[in-house]
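hey team, just a heads up i'm posting the complex here instead of the shared drive bc the drive is being weird again. everything in one block, sequence lines first with there labels, then the predicted structure for the whole assembly after. its two chains so it's a bit long, scroll down
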Amino acid sequence: MDEKQTGTDERKFIVGILLEFGGEKIRVFCRERIASGMDPFVIFSELQEGLEAIGAGYEDRTARRYFNSDLIVSGRNMKRAIDLLKPYLPARGGNSGIVVLGTVAGDVHDIGKTIFSVTLESEGFRVIDLGIDVPNERFIEAVRDYKPDILSMSSLLTTTRASMGDVIQSLVTTGLRDTVRVIVGGHAVTENFAQSIGADAYGSDCIDGLRKCRQFMNEIP
Amino acid sequence: MNIFFLYSGPFGEQIINTISLSGLFTITGAYELRPETVFGDVLPGASDDPDFFEDPGKFVPDDLPNNCADLLIVLGLHERLSELVPSIAKRLGVRSVLYPIDDRDMIPGAKKTIQDELHMAGIAIEFPEPFCSLAASRDRIIGEFARGFGRPGLEIIIDSRASIITSVEIQRDTPCGSASCIGKKLIGVDSADETFLSKFCYDEQHNDEAEHFCLAEMDPRYPLMQEAGDLLKDAVFSACGKPTTKHMMLSILREEGTLSADELASRVMSNSSATPGRGCITRRAFDLYVGELVRDGYIVKDPEDNLVILERG
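-- predicted structure starts here --
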């Protein structure tokens, strides 16, 4: 079997684990890999590839291999993996900075946000997670109340991403815009979109997002 | 009644799990039919495979059983495979087919052809959208199924002094099992605060950390999950003796006499499940309720399509 075939089979195997309704396979998968000494971030990365394969199968309108329900179940299994792997992530002191994050109004997808939250915490950020379907005014209240260094918003749906621009506008009108850096991400967001709404950065994935958050903190005097 | 499932993926698994565990029906089999089973790894376009298009019956897997069920339930089948449903229904010897649509991509491309072919074979078919909107049917087999699963129905007992929910009995569960799952969590909830009760229902209905939760599409352009939330919220409100969306619609129409559907919708609908009011959050549920109120003789539509109350006061 050649290397490409091995990679395809491995991805199919992981997709199968992510799509299992009961969630037992993902628990076994994570426990076995941790027991073999694998870095939890490498395990995240493997699972992320599986999620991306499911996402691509959902996006492909001619093939239509996956439904919304497949996205939800694979997301739930990814959360199970996060719960299992979290204790094995390197713990750091919580003084890297404060991040308020949430998924915008009308959108209940939270897996990308949750992975980003875990990644930030493992790098010493204090994370205030507002959850999913967060009303615009709740983001503004949180910036006012917690005085974070960074506000992070995510959106999986093109129909809900406009809220990010509305929140940034509200930050301007309430005089809070200069107090916080704004990073946006999620499946519905692109670099161009981020620029068009006046965000400070776009995170293409959680590692890219982390890198940009670190960069923000280095720029703060 | 004997049921056979044709399914694909976790959407089917969750529903089969719920229906099987209820013990209400005899499950004679479940067959996972994936595109690769029929087409291999490369899915052909509709025009690339004339054999399939001409005679999809030839592609029915050999290992499906014969004459084994009264009802076939099709769950999350790939759109291209839907053309196999009539041949499979005949093979299984069923008298009725339920083909729920919980996602735009589940809508079979050849819906009319499937209906016609099954009709000619004397087999009934219905496409409830979403599955938990199924409340009744003229077809005896589907009607029998709908007494056990479909639009949520609950019986709730409230402590009259403290307004706390003390007992919940599920009269009809949603096929995904979310109604019975939420029913357990309602015990101990204070029913007096209607805004809280409403938000609780919507939040729990799509809470993916629950044992059973809604798997329908949630895109605001096709809000089936949100509609399912409306049906559940109104079922809970009805069981708690609180005004449902339909009660609100009738109450407003009794005051006004006549209103356009848009005007009435603007007065009863809330904007989001994050800040729900007492009414529904989707136009789909509103339109469903209008249809039911017309059917049940509470309102009529005048020639300008306005809604007119039939009994005032």
